[in-house]
Amino acid sequence: MYWYLRLDLILALTGRLIVIVFVVNCGSSSIKYQLINMEGERVMAKGLIERIGMEGSTLKHTPAGKYTIDLKEEIPDHKVGIRMAIKALTSKEYGVIKDMSEIDAVGHRVVHGGERFTDSVLITSDVLRGIEACCEIAPLHNPPNLYGINACMEIMRGTPQVAVFDTAFHQTMPKVAYLYGLPYEMYVKYGVRRYGFHGTSHKYVALRAAELMQEHMNDLRIISCHLGNGASIAAIKYGKSIDTSMGYTPLEGLIMGTRSGEIDPAIIPFLMEKENMNAQQIDDYLNRRSGILGISGLSSDFRDLESAANRGDDRSQLAIDVFAYKVKKYIGGYVAAMGGVDAIVFTAGLGENSPFMRDKICNGLEYLGTRIDPDLNQVRGKEREISVRRARVKIFVIPTNEELVIARDTYNICRRIIKL
Ligand code: ADP
């Protein structure tokens, strides 16, 4: 597998124009992909493979501007999944390229880059070993990312591959923000510290907010609220992430769809004893059965909670209230950490689509010099400034686009090497 040497890559890239980038995001049983033409940053096709290694695996492939094609086939592993995606992309009927050789580069989402990866990198054998080394701190996320990388490297030999890390953007955090109150040796020995996630998304929306304000990100203090099923907030001071709510794993911070977010650590041994749970079970309990699902007892989806609360369901209302309160508290904390704020951005499923939740979170933040305009706030999934005119602190809804950041990084890294 480690045939991929830097020299080979440089030779492969020499004289090559990077136009079409294949963006791959592998989960344990899923693959999301997009094919992006970098001339105009145009999405040519996108797809989702689900239930890899299970019964009923499917591929949903959508060529730009056309209907989704639903393919049901056995997909035992990620390699077969990638082959299927390429088959769909090159299909005579619904493909968007003639041949796999039209793919100039592949960009991979990698969840954990530890302390080593502070930016996106061209994948070499050494980089692969580095990603493997991070599996210890991200045992659920990094192995599927590696399956995807290995599959693409085998199938598309000679095509440059780039890794884009969820953690990289947060590597600018200072020690005061990332150290836990544990014996220092735990940090030195095992790398136990805050890493933060959703970095690609926070970076994208912060950049867009700066563009919309016609300012440079390096002159702004931005609080980015990525509120989806997984949720995190980042304090981005003068272009750099200086703090974020997720920690050593994505479990810390806000209350999420099914994740508890921060709790008193003493609750863990208490519950293990009372409810007779082992380490695996408590981990599952905190990651999959807690959060707004746990509080409401109804659903992990805010849409369900909003309609249940409207029907008078108290626990759904409580889950919404607890979530909004926590987000507001983080915003306040990050204003303090940055010595002020110039813009607050909402993104991801809930942040982009729920005027109700945005209003609830921002209600009471007027002391910062901001207020939501109720009419402008009636927006779903579209980029818009939603604060009142002339507000000192701007509030934006900005749909995230992690795939585009991955494609851009892949394109830029490959171009830099071509110019060597
Ligand atoms: P993830 O990528 O973390 O799985 P998403 O960013 O896709 O999550 O967000 C999914 C969540 O967004 C859903 O669980 C739901 O709670 C919320 N959501 C999506 N659309 C709406 C909507 N119209 N109103 C309220 N919440 C929504």
UniProtKB/TrEMBL annotation:
Substrate binds at R109. Mg(2+) binds at N25, E402. The active site is at D166 (proton donor/acceptor). ATP binds at K32, H226, L227, G228, N229, G230, D301, F302, R303, G349, L350, G351, E352, N353. Gene3D superfamilies: 3.30.420.40. Mg(2+). Can also accept Mn(2+). It catalyses: acetate + ATP = acetyl phosphate + ADP. SUPFAM superfamilies: Actin-like ATPase domain (SSF53067). This is Acetate kinase. It comes from Phascolarctobacterium succinatutens YIT 12067. The lineage of its organism: Bacteria, Bacillati, Bacillota, Negativicutes, Acidaminococcales. The gene is ackA.
